[in-house]
Design a protein that fits this description.
alpha/beta
C-alpha cells in the first residue's frame, strides 16, 4: 500500500475558508500536513484554521484578494517563513459568473472572472514554482469545473476561464515533468458550496444552461472533492500529472 506521504508537508490551500477549500484544508491536516489557508474572507479563513488547530493540526492564514500580486507574494512568503516552504499548492479559490451568453457578457464580468479564476491561480503557481524547483519536487492541484469540460455548465465568462485553467494545468505539467513537479486538476460537478451566481443574468444564458441542468445528478459534499484533491496531491498519485479528474457523479459521461 502506498502511503500519502503528506505528513509533515507544507500545503497552501486557496479559498480555504469555505466549501471545497475548507474541506481540503481539514483533510490535508488530518493527513499530518501543515496548512496555510488563503481566502478573501478573513473570518471564514480564521474559523477554518481554528478547526484545524482544535484537531491538533498546524494552520496559518493569509486573507486577501489573490488576483492582486502583492497578496500572492504575501501568501508565498508566509508559507516559506511560517511553514518552512511549499510542497503542495491547491489553487481552489474561484467565483461564478452571471450565466450570461457571449453577446450579453459585460466587460466587468469578463475581466473579473478571468482575473479571479484564471490569472490568480497563474500568479500563485508562478510564485510557488521556484520554491518547488529548489526542493526538486512538488504537487499542484487546481479546481477546474464541469464547465472546463463542456460548454453547457455555466456562462461564457466562467466557461472560458475554466477552460483556460485546464490549459494552464496541462502546459505546466509538461514544462515541469522532468523537475519532479506534478500538476493536476479536479473538475467538480454540482457541489454544495457557497459559490453563487454573481448577479441577475440576461435571459439567454440561463435558459440554455438550464436545458442541460437535468444531467447534473447528485450534488456532492465538499469532502468528496477534498478526497480527490488530497489523492492527486499525495504520493498515491505519484505517476499522475496533466490529468483533469471529473468528480461529478458521471455528469461528464452523459
Amino acid at each position: 500500500m502506498i502511503e500519502s506521504g503528506l505528513a509533515g508537508k507544507n500545503v497552501v490551500v486557496t479559498g480555504g475558508g469555505s466549501g471545497i477549500g475548507r474541506a481540503s484544508a481539514l483533510r490535508f491536516a488530518a493527513e499530518g500536513a501543515r496548512v496555510l489557508i488563503a481566502d478573501l474572507n478573513a473570518e471564514t479563513a480564521e474559523s477554518a484554521a481554528a478547526e484545524v488547530r482544535a484537531a491538533g493540526g498546524t494552520a496559518e492564514v493569509v486573507a486577501g484578494d489573490l488576483s492582486r500580486q502583492e497578496v500572492v507574494d504575501e501568501v508565498v512568503a508566509a508559507a516559506v517563513e511560517r511553514l518552512g516552504g511549499i510542497d503542495v499548492l491547491v489553487n481552489n479559490a474561484g467565483i461564478m459568473d452571471d450565466l450570461s451568453a457571449t453577446a450579453d457578457v459585460t466587460d466587468a464580468v469578463w475581466e473579473r472572472l478571468i482575473r479571479v479564476n484564471l490569472t490568480a491561480p497563474f500568479l500563485l503557481t508562478r510564485a510557488a514554482l521556484p520554491h518547488m524547483l529548489e526542493r526538486g519536487k512538488g504537487s499542484i492541484v487546481f479546481t477546474a469545473s464541469e464547465a472546463s469540460l463542456r460548454g453547457s455548465a455555466a456562462g461564457t465568462a466562467y466557461t472560458a476561464a475554466k477552460h483556460g485553467v485546464v490549459g494552464l494545468v496541462k502546459s505546466t505539467a509538461v514544462m515541469y515533468r522532468d523537475h519532479g513537479i506534478r500538476v493536476n486538476a479536479v473538475a467538480p460537478g454540482g457541489t454544495a458550496t457557497a459559490i453563487a451566481v454573481e448577479a441577475a443574468p440576461a435571459p439567454g444564458g440561463p435558459t440554455v444552461v438550464g436545458t442541460y441542468a437535468t444531467n447534473i445528478g447528485r450534488v456532492a459534499d465538499p469532502a468528496e472533492l477534498a478526497a480527490a484533491i488530497v489523492f492527486l496531491a499525495s504520493d498515491a498519485a505519484s505517476n499522475i500529472s496533466g490529468a483533469v479528474l471529473p468528480v461529478d457523479n458521471g455528469w461528464s459521461a452523459v
